Amino acid sequence: MADSEKSPAPSTKNRSKSKDGELRVIGVPRRRVDARAKVTGQTRFADDIAFPRMAYCKLLRSPHAHARIRKIGTTRARSHPGVYLVLTGKDVPIEYGILPVSQDEQALCVDHVRHVGDPVAAVIAREELTAFEALDLIDVEYEVLAPICDPEEALANPEPRIHSYGEEGNIHKRVALAFGDVEQGFAEADEVFEDVFFYQGNTHLPIEQHAAVAVKDPDGKLTIWSSTQTPHYLHRALAKVLEMPPAHIRVIATPNGGGFGGKSDPFQHEIVIAKAALLLDRPVKICLTREEVFYCHRGRHPVLMKFKTGVKKDGTIIGMHLQTLIDGGAYGSYGVASTFYTGALQTTTYHVPRYRFEGCRTFTNKPPCGPKRGHGTVQPRFGQEVQLDKIAEKLAIDPAELRLRIVESSDTVTANFLRLGTVNLAECIRRVVKRSGWNEKFRKLPEGRGVGLACSAYLTGAGLPIYWNKMPHSGVQLKLDRGGGVTVFCGSSEIGQGSDDVLASIVAEVLGLDTFDIRIYTGDTDLGPVDLGSYSSRVTLMAGNAAIQAAERAKDLLVTAVAERLTVPKERLRFADGHVFDSAAPEKGVTFAEAVSLAEARFGTIGTVGSYTPPESPAHYKGGGVGPSPTYSYSAAVVEVGVNPLTGWTTIPTIWIAHDIGRALNPELARGQVVGSVYMGLGEALMEEQQFRRLPKKLSSAFVHKFPSMLEYKSPTTLDMPDVVVDLIEEPDPRGPFGAKEVGQGPLLPIMPAVANAVYDAVGVRIDEVPITPEKIIKGLAEKKAGRLPRFGPSHFPQIDWPEALRVPPPWEGGDGNAVNHPPRDGKPASQKEKVLTP
Amino acid sequence: MITVPVESRKSAHIRLTLNAEPVEVSFAPYKTLLEVLREDLGHTGTKHGCELGECGACAVLVDDKPVLSCLLLALECDGRNVLTVEGLASNGTLHPLQEAFANLGAAQCGYCTPAILVTAKALLDENPAPTRDQIRQALSGNLCRCTGYLQIFEAVEEAVVKIAEQRKTSTHG
Prior knowledge:
The complex is a heterodimer.
Chain A: H1 35-39, E1 55-61, E2 67-73, H2 75-78, E3 83-88, E4 112-113, E5 119-125, H3 128-135, E6 139-144, H4 151-156, E7 171-179, H5 182-188, E8 191-199, E9 211-216, E10 222-226, H6 231-242, E11 249-253, H7 268-280, E12 284-287, H8 290-296, E13 303-311, E14 317-327, H9 335-344, E15 355-362, H10 378-395, H11 399-406, H12 425-436, H13 438-441, E16 449-459, E17 474-480, E18 486-490, H14 499-511, E19 518-522, H15 539-566, E20 573-576, E21 579-582, E22 585-591, H16 592-603, E23 607-612, E24 632-643, E25 650-651, E26 654-660, H17 667-686, E27 692-694, E28 703-705, E29 723-729, H18 751-763, E30 766-767, E31 769-770, H19 774-785, E32 791-792, E33 806-807
Parallel strand pairs in A: 1-12, 7-33, 8-31, 10-11, 14-15, 18-19, 26-29, 30-32
Antiparallel strand pairs in A: 1-5, 2-4, 2-6, 3-5, 7-15, 8-13, 9-10, 9-12, 13-14, 16-24, 17-18, 17-23, 20-21, 21-22, 24-25, 24-26, 27-28
Chain B: E1 12-18, E2 21-27, H1 33-40, E3 59-62, E4 65-68, E5 81-83, H2 96-103, H3 113-126, H4 132-138, H5 150-172
Parallel strand pairs in B: 1-5
Antiparallel strand pairs in B: 1-2, 3-4, 3-5
Helix pairs in contact in B: 2-5
């Protein structure tokens, strides 16, 4: 083969050496199955798709942060040469949203725009430029409203309301959960720490702008290609808004040019072009500009948080009370889930016997926030890990030693009823401590240089689907061909993370093939069974387990047929190197193609299915749907920094990270996910932020994104990237396919707090806020010089009218995962409460 | 505001060498090289991430130098030599950079990859043995959100070795 497409390994020519249970594909660093397409420019992203007669769509977006639409005039635009169609909100009025509890979006705003960039009309024209020109010919009359610019403003100003639903005023969601009596814990503690942190919002910034193409098929059905991470949820949203049976809609998720959570919601532009393609009976394409991508957003929520933690002198945590105030932006998106996520995983790393969480998400007139890598857990992890560094210092315990004392153990059910899988956090900590030379560096480096340590955990797939159902979360179908080929069909979506390679490697491993022998069809709602999508780090575990089941079922059929032909006991048959053979006499066997033919003669056409449903969670309380996962990954990182005390400029030469992955299915890709996560974490730690600016209220209601461009939204370049020493800790978790846990998100989480802790080690200044910019360091150093608290960060957490907490006694207090009280909410009886089922 | 009907806008016409083949193309004169490559010449391997010269995803080689094709009018390319990712492999054999990127995990989503490949090629054509810092410098205008760049550096270094080996074989054999 000219370009060595076949995976270089394993070269196992000698079948007699193939040992039972020895893995030949899994765990071997391999070229991913889609690599050749990517390096030759042949991967077809959504905007690479074009059809004859294709029209182009452009959206007219609101220039106001908050306004009522009085009137929209489209006559001039419609008569512009080359314009085929102009759509407004009344053409697609049905509300939708990713969560059943937040159906608050419209494809085009009907009477209310809620942020700069909210779309109000669409032009579909013969050429993109024509559509763009015609946007200027749409006459919109707005009644401008006062914008709500941040959560504290939202709390103080119930009017004007951004949405007519939610808790009250501009509060979207308020939650309060109490697992044991934290006040009693604080009373028993030797020390109680209270800290307020702020985590600024930031965005995914995938290099590919969102794009989609919709076609009315010759038979009248609809097909849409889109850069979406969640084709199944888009399928549902399209069916709802277009009032069409899902069976008449086909969604094809094209390979995403980066997702990171930013392509997980159904988007306005997808619905608009679908509607337009149906009306015009011709293909319609849209590709967002970079500025529009900033307006679609759904990225990291800005979160203000207060941690109150009580500890014993030896570092044991007695109780923790976390409050979060979340800037949701203009729509619900995943926000109810995000709110719960800010309080969900605090108990998964260290033993927390009593835990109380209160979270409040407000609406503001900014692009909606949603899930970005680490969804909702990144911000409180920052606070928790920085506070732990402060606790270690106060107690005079080494921060690594402190963490090792309190790490949670495998198979625990936590205070908030999360059932943990394997927990190898201690090994992660020991590994990075050793590799980084921590003991020789911590508090020992010269002024201006420092090291910081932090840890984290993350889900390996959300335990519950977004909408309530008891069906599998992932399904796989296999088709076996007489020629020896195997085709995998799965609804999973390839966003660059390597999910197609996961499917190929698992099927190849079980059936003794090379990954090049496998064809993969994914992300197509017509071809593959449902997979819920590429979010919550769920695909490797869920689609992987489904693939194992389907492949094992196929293997069973082949084994039966081959055993009969060779007259050997079934148990003796092995699959390797494209052959099925007798392990006792390896020369006795058939090729895989012959095995398929034998099975086809014996059983008829060979096709099998597999599916995966996560285990039931012990968290039965309302809100307990967010946080459960089949198992959790763990990470520990040490960051070394150099801080220039004159400029505040931070340089990072090296980061050491260990990740408890269970098993790396393809170590080359796994390492790439770890390094990519570290990179993205570094961007969040040092520079990335969504900032907005306004004029004095008296002068103007203008409230705009400060820099919706890649040039000014700073992200790390090749010149900023440090060396990253990666250790994968592999103790297979029986819950994962071949023992695998997630790797795509978890390794991002420890980076921001580790940087903050390292900056403190370097210059003795606490930066309790992300991003940690030179300006903040300089301000902190000035405080230090003036003899005040050497710190930069938020000073207070506002008073919030929290609801009565749902009281759930932890397992060790005899709790069974149910609440023992039923606080009244919104005057609605408990029976009318919607179930909260979220990723 | 342009109000001329679309068809009459395809008034520009150039000849260029694209991936070693002579081509002629007619297009609307306002179009950038990026747009003409993707929309008028069917070469969609070259990507766009901002169309403002910020992300580097649209880099191609024009007369062997990396250029952001979103900032270059196609009209300026008459008579010039353009290389895109589609022209990297020859006679069915991947370029050593492509081989190394594929084998070493240097392409995750693959969206920034075409531009990084051609930019790296320009570097190696000029400097067959770059240091890690020179590689960083050469690729500093290409943003990648997936990889954290390290596997890209490693792949370029691997390709350096492979190209040197190839040269050795071709001189000695």
